[in-house]
Automatic annotation (TrEMBL):
It is found in: Cytoplasm; Nucleus. Residues 4-97 form the CCR4-Not complex component Not N-terminal domain. Belongs to the CNOT2/3/5 family. Keywords: Coiled coil, Cytoplasm, Nucleus, Repressor, Transcription, Transcription regulation. GO terms for cellular component: CCR4-NOT core complex; cytoplasm; nucleus. Pfam families: Not3 (PF04065). Its main location: cytoplasm. It comes from Corchorus capsularis (Jute). It comes from the Eukaryota. This is CCR4-Not complex component Not N-terminal domain-containing protein. Residues 56-83 form a coiled coil.
Length: 100
């Protein structure tokens, strides 16, 4: 259940970014289609606002990627910790040596 919710969240973020790109493209076309200087300035301000939204969305994705990397490293640490805490002459250690 948790994995599907997490996956749905990632899908929503991607769709949100795509929607932002579509809005940016629409405003971009308006900037170059108009001859009115006041409208151009307004559209340029709108472009700036949309690009900031897109940049923050990519920042969020970078945080998600970093979090995943931290989780992977945490799992690696747990394995290392488990191996180093296993006593040298314990049954587990002997079993691991036999496997090698």
């Amino acid at each position: 259940m948790g994995a599907s919710r997490k996956f749905q969240g990632e899908i929503d973020r991607v769709l949100k970014v795509q929607e932002g790109v579509d809005i940016f493209d629409s405003i971009w076309n308006k900037v170059y289609d108009t001859d009115n200087a006041n409208q151009k300035e307004k559209f340029e301000a709108d472009l700036k606002k949309e690009i900031k939204k897109l940049q923050s969305a990519s920042y969020e994705q970078a945080l998600v990627d970093a979090r995943k990397q931290i989780e992977r490293e945490t799992e690696r640490f747990k394995i290392c910790e488990k191996e180093t805490k296993t006593k040298a002459f314990s049954k587990k250690a002997w079993a691991n040596n036999q496997k090698l």
